[in-house]
Amino acid sequence: MVDNLWKTYQMGVEQQVHALQGVTLRIRRNEYVAIMGPSGSGKSTLMNLIGCLDTPTEGNYWLNGHLVSELNDDELARIRNKEIGFVFQTFNLLARASALHNVELPLIYNGTPAAERLDRAQKALEAVNLGTRMHHKPNELSGGQRQRVAIARALINNPSIILADEPTGNLDSKTGVEIMALFDELHRQGNTIVLVTHEPDIAEYAHRVVHIRDGKIFSDQPSSRMQHA
């Protein structure tokens, strides 16, 4: 839940840029929401705030009942690791590490014992149909397989929210459809998904589409998929 969120950047002495201007948005558990908007609309800023990568200039953000807009950097890092699973357009995988090692990284950061880490990482890869590729490095995997590794990594801590930023941006359309089918499955399993995209056909996979323009919410409505359901 974000309430009256502002993010202002100081550009020199006189000039301020209001990337977000009083955004209020409630996302419930197990919702599937797409955030859309052109470049410079504020959608990436909003995603960074929801993902605890940044703090608002003004306003409040609650995640699972915690007021995270008031936390310091260390506390934000802890919440990020525990509550939020990130999936990026560029996959953000370690090139020299196997799929398995890439997936277990968040567990290394939070001190999970090695045997449990391996077990959970293997299960996460099996959940995204990559059980047979877990010892391959990213350069031995296709774009779609790399994104599946990234999704498995995002799931490893059973996060409250999966945040996907243009998750099909570097994929061909057939592979993009496969990845979006995987998000459908994750949503059916009870995950809350927030998808940031500028592609209308990708946004339509979500159940609710929020349009941002000039730092404000322009519209918030069910996707046509839900309207026809």
Explained architecture:
Belongs to the ABC transporter superfamily. Macrolide exporter (TC 3.A.1.122) family. One of its GO terms (cellular component) is membrane protein complex. This is Efflux ABC transporter, macrolide exporter (MacB) family, ATP-binding protein. By secondary structure, this protein is α/β, with parallel strands linked by helices. The chain has a single domain (2-227), classed as 3-Layer(aba) Sandwich (Rossmann fold), CATH 3.40.50.300. Helices cover 35% and strands 28% of the residues. The strands form two sheets. It has a six-stranded mixed β-sheet with strand order 6-7-8-3-9-10, sandwiched between helices. A four-stranded antiparallel β-sheet has the order 2-1-4-5, covered by helices on one side.
Task: Provide a quick synopsis of the model.
InterPro entries: AAA+_ATPase, ABC_transporter-like_ATP-bd, ABC_transporter-like_CS, ABC_transpr_LolD-like, MacB-like_ATP-bd, P-loop_NTPase. It holds the Pfam family ABC_tran. The protein is α/β, with parallel strands linked by helices and 229 residues long.
List the helices and strands and how they pair.
Layout: E1 2-11, E2 15-25, E3 32-36, H1 43-50, E4 58-63, E5 66-67, H2 73-83, E6 84-88, H3 99-109, H4 114-127, H5 143-155, E7 161-165, H6 173-188, E8 192-197, H7 200-203, E9 208-213, E10 216-222, H8 224-227
Helix pairs in contact: 3-4, 3-5, 4-5, 5-6
Which tags fit this structure?
229 residues; Rossmann fold; six-stranded mixed sheet; four-stranded antiparallel sheet; 8 helices; 28% strand
Helix content: 25-40%
The CATH C-level class name:
Alpha Beta
Q: How far apart lie the N and C ends?
A: 26 Å
Extended strand count: 10
